[in-house]
Amino acid sequence: MHNLNPEDFSCPLPIMEYETIQLAHGSGGRLSAELVSRFFLPRFGNETLNRLEDQAVVDFPQGRLALTTDSFVVDPLFFPGGDIGDLAINGTVNDVCMSGATPLYLAAAFIIEEGLPMVTLHRILLSMEKAAKSAGVQIVTGDTKVVNRGCCDKLFITTTGVGRVPAEANISAANLQAGDTIILSGSIGDHGMAILTSREGLSFASRVQSDTAALNGLVARMLQASPIIHAMRDPTRGGLATTLNEFATASGVGIVLQEAAIPVRPEVRGACEVLGIDPMYVANEGKLVAVVPGEVAGTVVAAMRSHPLGREAAIIGEVVAENRGMVVMRNALGAQRIVDMPVGEQLPRIC
Questions:
Q1: C-alpha span between 271 and 107 (Å, rounded)
Q2: Could you tell me which residue, 57 or 253, shows the higher pLDDT?
Q3: What pLDDT is attached to residue 13?
Q4: At what angle do helices 84-97 and 118-135 cross, to 10 degrees?
Q5: 20 to 30 A from 334, CA-CA: which of 9, 71, 154, 346?
Q6: Rounded distance, CA 324 to CA 347, Å?
Q7: Residue 139, class by beta-carbon neighbours within 10 Å (0-12 exposed, 13-18 middle, 19+ buried)?
Q8: Over the stretch 174-192, which tens digit does the pLDDT of each residue have?
């Protein structure tokens, strides 16, 4: 009779080293725990996140909160000037601080396609870590899911942000008044054109770079100069045109823009002309538009220009009582045209 060796019946040890994401990494078991401990905690670890609870419990002073959530599905994952990682951090920070709030905490959820290279995930997490530190925020909770190949495009990230709103802040799209001044922090169209030209492999004399950046430092500088800011927003999808139309509609006022005052980089303008796209409708990820009382506009612009992200700040228009709900563009010759809302999405998957 054959002598049986107990080792013949032993279960093989699970393979723990993978070069790509496996479905088991999203199972909630040992590989899930290893993925979190090896990749996520080293990037975002802090006293709150390290507890690995299903929720984050943080101390918060009394007052108002600003809360936002967003999903990022940009294609490609890496583009000139940034990637989906810093875009997810910066975009969420910006949505919080457009209320005048100081962003404090973020939650991040990752939907990962089976087969994503570990090196790709690691590179994106490093980018998120750097962006979070730069913005002064902590990722205090999160989630990871792994789906079958073909069920998502490599990696989707959802982020939620929380910030503290100062008592004196009252910033809303519904606050515009006739006589207000429209201020833009810098050139428009950079991000959308960077994504499109990268995705389509288009080559221009000058490479278009995304403007992705966290704007909370700039906003703080503006509020120090003047606590009275009527409205503020980062013009992402739909661009500056969409944001200003939303302002005009919410406040029941008209907006008149000076075309020559709106900064557009030559390489962005050239790409838009070749592709037949108006830069007014192209997404931005590191710019803001603010509406302030006319008497403080000069002070706010000066404060913005003292910050690295506001050096190109410019007054681009005014709020008027006429043409309620409409945005009008005036060119150097005095001719006017209506700047309407876009009918559809010109540039899909840009954030």
A1: 36
A2: 253
A3: 42
A4: 30
A5: 346
A6: 29
A7: buried
A8: 999 999 999 999 999 999 9
Q: How far apart are CA 271 and CA 311, in angstroms?
A: 23
Cross-strand bridge partners of residue 71: 158
What token pair was written down for 4?
């049986």
Rounded-to-integer distance, Cα 139 and Cα 58, Å: 12
Distances (CA, A) of 57 to 66, 110, 194, 336: 16, 21, 38, 53
Whether 130 contacts 85, CB under 8 Å: no
Tally Cβ neighbours within 10 Å of residue 30: 12
Rounded to whole angstroms, how far apart are CA atoms 291 and 244? Answer: 10
- One-letter identity of residue 114: E
pLDDT band per the 50, 70, 90 thresholds, residue 204: low
Write the CA distances from 169 to 100, 175, 217, 219, 329, integer angstroms: 6, 12, 16, 12, 30
* Angle (nearest 5°) at CA 115 between 113 and 120: 85
CA 290 from centre of chain: 17
Residue 260 · residue 190 · CB < 8 Å:
no
Report which secondary-structure segment, H or E, holds 69: strand 64-72
Give, in order, the Cα–Cα distances in Å from 114 to each of 18, 21, 27.
11, 5, 12
Q: List CB contacts of 42: < 8 A, sequence separation 6 or more.
A: none
> Average pLDDT, stretch 34-40?
92
Query: Which are the contacts of 225, defined by CB distance < 8 A and separation ≥ 6?
Result: 296, 299, 300, 302, 303
Helices (H) and strands (E) in the chain, counts: 9, 13
Residue ranges in 98-136 assigned as alpha helix (H) = 118-135
Global pTM value: 0.89
DSSP string, 72-94: E--SSSEETTEEHHHHHHHHHHH
For residue 190, the SS3 value is helix
What DSSP assignment string belongs to 148-166?
-TTSSSSEEEEEEEEEEEP
**CA torsion angle 70 76 80 82 (round to 10):** 30
